[in-house]
Amino acid sequence: MGGIQTIDLKGFVTNAVKGVFQTMLSMSLELEEPPNFENITTGKHIVGTVGFAGAAMGNVSIFVSRQFACEIAAAMLSMTVDDIGSDEEVHDVIGEVCNMVGGDLKSRLCDSGFTCSLSIPSVTFGESFRTESKGWDRHERYGVRNSHHSALMEVYIKAAN
Amino acid sequence: MTLKVLTVDDSKTIRMIVKKAFQAYNCEITEAENGVEGLAAAAKIKPGLIILDITMPVMTGVEMLERLKGDDALKAIPVIMLTAESGKDNVMNIVKKGINDYMVKPFKGEDLIERVRKIMPLEPKTEEMDDKKPGKYFTQVEDVVVLTLPAKVLRPVSVEVENSLQVKIKDMTAAQLKKMILDMGGVSETNVSLIKLIITALQQCQKANVAVKLVANAKQGEELKGFQETSQITVAHSIEEARAAM
């Protein structure tokens, strides 16, 4: 087992998010470098987060604008954006997308020797807010985008003592 | 014969995807949000198949599976597990517990159907079946029956729904089900036929001592206030909100 610093977090996370979007939404994403963090977090946006704990601890979040979140929900539920009845449906979809990305990351970590368990996803939504977490071995952000929208993935991770 | 499928997942999104996957087949879908609700539903409806998530609050899918396998009346029910975790240890752990198959999320509805077909035959739903089936507007979430109104409610449709409702209420009484949600969220136009149908449905439920809540979006809620007969009705904006208020 290598150290937590040697893990290919970027590959794990970006491949997971691309896979989820391709399979569940038939939506192709490409890497966006540098990530479009300010643009996503300035207006109304939604953050899905899932935590993992064990030999590796941390969390992985996905940030999307409210508009992109609605489009993701509509694609996932085979609806149009206008058909979405409530924010609850949008939040549930973003939570589930995050759960799938987190589940894939957790599996890669376990297979790399960092056995850990996954939490149930949480969703935060609002306007012009920031999330911050301290004391981690690694904190990384990766951007992905389709032709219209950007999404941001953020990972905090540390090895258990 | 209609296959009863129980989908147990805390995510409404996944339950909807599962439900849509089976839409083309002669299946009746029941939903549960966690292992506790799933066990209760399994004991009550004796499904022919369970689609079971792993990570859920209250009781996980693994715990529910262990209890299912420990219950003589339920242990033979085929189970397909859904997991967001594809790691070797996780897969080995669930395979050892006696499941029939598993799927790693993300997945497509058609892939799920392929897995199911490896375990049991699925009978495609015919138009004839759809038309004859009095329950085509109804689904069940735990002990709550949900009547989902179609996008357009014109007179012939409202008559059909009223007739189906009469049959359904009889079935509910026999099964001691006492809660119904009338979901008009998917209706595209609020017209007189819809209003009459809502009133009739509420009266039928009241007569049968069935508690009923109406689900509508904000715009529909405002439109209902414009009709004298429905102006006093309180609406919920989602099925979950309506269930919580029951």
Summarize the structure in words:
Chain A is of the alpha+beta class and 161 residues long. Chain A has one domain (4-159): 3-Layer(aba) Sandwich (Chemotaxis protein chec). Chain A has helices at 9-25, 37-42, 66-76, 87-111, and strands spanning 30-32, 44-54, 56-65, 116-118, 122-127, 138-145, 150-159. Chain B has two domains: 3-119, Rossmann fold (3-Layer(aba) Sandwich); 134-244, Transcription Regulator spoIIAA (2-Layer Sandwich), CATH 3.30.750. Helix content of chain B is 43%, strand content 19%. Chain B has ten helices and ten strands. Chain B has a ten-stranded mixed β-sheet, with helices on both faces. Chain B is elongated, with a radius of gyration of 19 Å. Chains A and B meet through α1 and α4 of A and α1 and α4 of B.
> Beta-strand level of the residues of chain B, as a percent range?
15-25%
Fraction of helical residues of chain B? 40-55%
CATH class of chain A: Alpha Beta
Question: What Rg of chain A do the Cα atoms give?
Answer: 15 Å
Short description:
The complex is a heterodimer of chains A (161) and B (246). By secondary structure, chain A is of the alpha+beta class.
Q: Topology, please?
A:
The complex is a heterodimer of chains A (161) and B (246).
Chain A: H1 9-25, E1 30-32, H2 37-42, E2 44-54, E3 56-65, H3 66-76, H4 87-111, E4 116-118, E5 122-127, E6 138-145, E7 150-159
Antiparallel strand pairs in A: 1-6, 2-3, 2-4, 2-5, 3-7, 6-7
Chain B: E1 3-8, H1 12-21, E2 27-32, H2 35-45, E3 49-53, H3 61-69, E4 79-83, H4 88-95, E5 101-104, H5 109-119, H6 127-132, E6 138-141, E7 144-148, H7 155-174, E8 179-183, H8 192-207, E9 211-215, H9 218-225, E10 235-236, H10 239-244
Parallel strand pairs in B: 1-2, 1-3, 2-6, 3-4, 4-5, 7-8, 8-9, 9-10
Antiparallel strand pairs in B: 6-7
Helix pairs in contact in B: 1-5, 2-3, 7-8
